[in-house]
């Protein structure tokens, strides 16, 4: 899908990959396409009205899997104007193993074309100029070389100055970063460039030593974020910034597959906010989507 002359309600930025997920039949695998920011874009497209366009910015290769991936994104109704092509690289791949609903991943992504998504500063600025909301994650930053992170940070700051809203999910994956210190510094940096940060409490406790959601909220607000909503794996969701509080009593379920739980929550939350609902209503909307997603296998579940 192309929409070169129209604005975008949301532009998601990151790495889309070939996904292999275990099927219900032992020894059989399902091939699909996913990636944390693509997952959120995919759910947003299903939750927002047609007039609110959702776009995706990444880089792919020229091979068959890359072409099929771009076709998949376009067929989902997501604008592909800002999907670039790298003649020397291909898309990455990952496989999901499940054990009682919990996931583990094996990745083949070291030469992913998406590592060059911030290589062209002018193209990045043109893409960001079209977007009302720019959505990215810690994985988006982690896969980039240091020069790409600098280009991305500069473009985000300029877009925010022009009035765009930046939304950031830290989505901490230590294996993607050079070292733990760089990871913490860069996650904090990109959170500080954001209007909304959507961290997960387990990640923040493990990698920043936060004792609870209040510590996470205070740390990201101090870094420069405007609003923080702390996900808690289905538990009470705390939030801070101009709006402050906690949403409790959320329905719990035994998950079939937790893949994309946070990504789908983010989509439900953002879709609700873009349609004028308040923070608590948006949290409940995000939780309702995530609850449905963890009840099925794979990252992308029809909702």
Automatic annotation (TrEMBL):
CDD domains, sorted: KdgK
Gene Ontology MF terms in the entry: 2-dehydro-3-deoxygluconokinase activity
Pfam families, per the entry: PfkB
Listed InterPro entries: Carboh/pur_kinase_PfkB_CS, PfkB_Carbo_kinase, PfkB_dom, Ribokinase-like
Protein name (Swiss-Prot/TrEMBL): Ribokinase
This protein's UniProt keywords: Kinase, Transferase
Family: Belongs to the carbohydrate kinase PfkB family.
A single cellular component GO annotation: cytosol
Annotated GO biological process: D-galacturonate catabolic process; D-glucuronate catabolic process; DNA damage response
Lineage of the species this protein comes from: Bacteria, Pseudomonadati, Pseudomonadota, Alphaproteobacteria, Rhodobacterales
Location of the Carbohydrate kinase PfkB domain: 10-299
